[in-house]
Specification:
Distance between the termini: 48 Å
Structural class: alpha/beta
Number of domains: 2
Strand content: 15-25%
CATH superfamily of the largest domain: HUPs
Helix content: 25-40%
CATH topology of the largest domain: Rossmann fold
Number of helices: 9
Strand order of the largest sheet: 1-4-3-2-5-6
Bound molecules: pantoate
Order of helices and strands: EHEHEHEHHHEHEHHEEE
Shape: globular
Number of strands: 9
């Protein structure tokens, strides 16, 4: 059955009030791909009704970023939602989401200024503000986010803790192409040679995750990226970090436990991010 498309808050309320049981929300900016499809599939396992929001949120784009060229593929997105049994697609206009310019916004605090937040000032404040609005509008029981945006997931979890929100946050594994490239709505911008360079991101993470200890992981990943920086077209490396998954602060070389190896860079004019979770056993534990 085709999902109900709600464009206004009133239409959303009517559609939500008619939904049975537990509601799961999958917030998106559209240009849906297999990664979104897996989030929707998991949402269907966790709840009775799935709501997908599609909104390209200007608040999370900086002045020189790709807001204008961000892909908008509503008909294809709707077809995916229909195939996946989504009950409601909330696709508000800018005026519905932001009827008046925001005076009050959510701050991601220190976590919004480090790693990806250092490359994209204000990005996570914009994400949290729209996500909080979506939580309030949809009133879902649980909300699903991809682990590819690991820092986004961390700041959202932290907002839920710090602001005592009654909502369950579910992280879902990154979906990859067979050659390792993490799925992203921005991959469609990559020319074939750029895509070949972009593969260095996942290759670097794989090399890092297979190495011994935190310093070995950083070194092995860095070696792959150093080659990609020299390739044609080159990778412009923004960062490679090994961080605590909850706080995104760097872990020391002596660290044992779970860390996130995260990387970001630009290929051509496309900003790409990726990460992998790495477990470092204690020295006396088997690997
Ligand atoms: O991950 C995204 O697509 C966006 O950041 C989100 C969570 C939908 C907020 O606009």
């Amino acid at each position: 059955m085709a999902p109900i498309v709600a464009r206004t808050r009133e239409e959303l309320n009517t559609a939500i009030n008619a939904l049975p049981g537990k509601i799961a929300l999958v917030p998106t900016m559209g240009a849906l791909h297999e990664g979104h499809r897996s989030l929707i599939g998991r949402a269907g396992e966790l709840a009775d009704s799935v709501v997908v929001s599609i909104f390209v949120n200007p608040l999370q784009f900086g002045p020189n970023e790709d807001l204008d060229r961000y892909p908008r593929t509503f008909d294809a997105d709707l077809a995916i939602c229909a195939a996946e049994g989504v009950a409601v697609v909330f696709a508000p206009t800018l005026e519905v989401m932001y009827p008046v310019p925001n005076e009050i916004t959510i701050s991601a605090g220190r976590m919004g200024t480090i790693v990806e937040g250092a490359c994209r000032p204000g990005h996570f404040d914009g994400v949290l503000t729209v996500v909080m609005k979506l939580f309030n509008l949809v009133r879902a029981d649980c909300v699903l986010f991809g682990e590819k945006d690991a820092q986004q997931l961390a700041v959202i979890r932290r907002m839920v803790t710090d602001l005592a929100l009654s909502i369950e946050i579910v992280g879902c594994p990154t979906v990859r192409e067979p050659d390792g490239l993490a799925l992203s709505s921005r991959n469609r911008f990559l020319a074939p040679a750029e895509r070949a360079t972009a593969l260095a991101l996942s290759h670097a993470l794989h090399a890092g995750a297979s190495a011994q200890g935190p310093s070995g992981a950083r070194r092995a990943a860095r070696a792959v990226l150093d080659e990609a920086v020299k390739s044609d077209p080159p990778l412009e490396l923004d960062y490679l970090v090994l961080v605590d998954p909850a706080t995104f602060t760097p872990v020391p070389d002596t660290f044992s436990g779970t860390a996130v190896l995260a990387v970001a860079g630009k290929v051509g004019s496309t900003h790409l991010i990726d990460n992998v979770i790495v477990n470092f056993p204690r020295r006396d534990e088997p690997a």
